[in-house]
Amino acid sequence: MTMISERSAPAGAELAGGAAFAPAPASAARRGVPSPAPGRAPGEGRPRRDLRRAFLRALSVAACVGLWQWASMTRADLGVVTFLNVPAPTDVLAAARELFASQKLWQHLGNSVFRVLAGFAAAGATGVVLGLLIGRSRLAEDTLLPPLEILRPIPGVAWLPLAILMFPSAELSMIFITYMGALFPILIATIHGVGALDPRLIASSRSLGARPLRLFLEVVLPGALPSIVTGMSIGMGTSWFCLVTAEMIGGQYGIGYFTWESYNLQRYPDIVLGMLLIGLLGMLSSALVLRVGAWLTPWQEPQEKGR
């Protein structure tokens, strides 16, 4: 009687009775992922699932807009919240047509986008470099982290009066506000990403002869990159928040200035339009950061959520 053991049998070898021995991939077994069902290709139902999720998301937004339209048309008074003076979505849509036909919108958008990109780029470079240094060096942690921790709880908007005194122009002061808003989320995420690296990975790289620079560029930085991308996504949102507030106080152009000017002139549909533009720009810019991060970390597999 011929005995075939699992250790000696090759993948796909036929056992008694014609059954094929095809063990599940080791990576799937380690992750606890069940093998795909026979006759079904992996990801076969993904397009239908993605379409269903997109439909549910669109339906959620449409339901919110419908509730908003109903509350505005009926002048709903909920006691704490009243919609007596809140413009309806149809009024905001009419205001959007008028604004998109003028040159004002593009001037406001151009100024706001430039300020955010300039402040965010400077904050990204500073936060990543400082975070990597603090995460890898005890001396840098003891000398740089304490003053940064004192400054971290200060809201970006609170820097505005000092920024006006520090910088010769309002433009630079608003860029500085966006810089301060994005700096600390990126910094803290980078420090945590470096701290979460497996020490055995560092030790193995050193034992294989990796020099400090190669260890830093090929092990530490790629290992911390997913956390850095998350911090940058959060920092992008906070930079928009800080910029809009700065534009409301000290700007002459920008989406924040447009929203505040609309309030002073009692153009209520334009107020809501400015708020929606701010939310849309923040959402798109954060999604762009995440997309670039996914492209830079192809080894990071997205986690499937439970059905």
Automatic annotation (TrEMBL):
InterPro entries associated with the record: MetI-like, MetI-like_sf
Keyword Metal-binding: no
PROSITE patterns in the cross-refs: ABC_TM1
Superkingdom: Bacteria
Keyword vocabulary terms for this entry: Cell membrane, Membrane, Transmembrane, Transmembrane helix, Transport
Any one GO biological process: alkanesulfonate transmembrane transport
GO cellular component, one term: plasma membrane
Chain spans, region Disordered: 26-47
Locations listed in the record: Cell membrane
Record's bilayer topology term: Multi-pass membrane protein
Keyword Transmembrane: yes
Composition skew (Low complexity), residue ranges: 26-41
Transmembrane spans: 54-71, 113-135, 156-177, 183-203, 215-234, 272-296
Domain ABC transmembrane type-1: 109-289
Family, per entry: Belongs to the binding-protein-dependent transport system permease family.
PANTHER family in the cross-refs: ABC TRANSPORTER PERMEASE PROTEIN MJ0413-RELATED, ALKANE SULFONATE ABC TRANSPORTER-RELATED, MEMBRANE SUBUNIT
Protein's UniProt name: ABC transporter permease protein
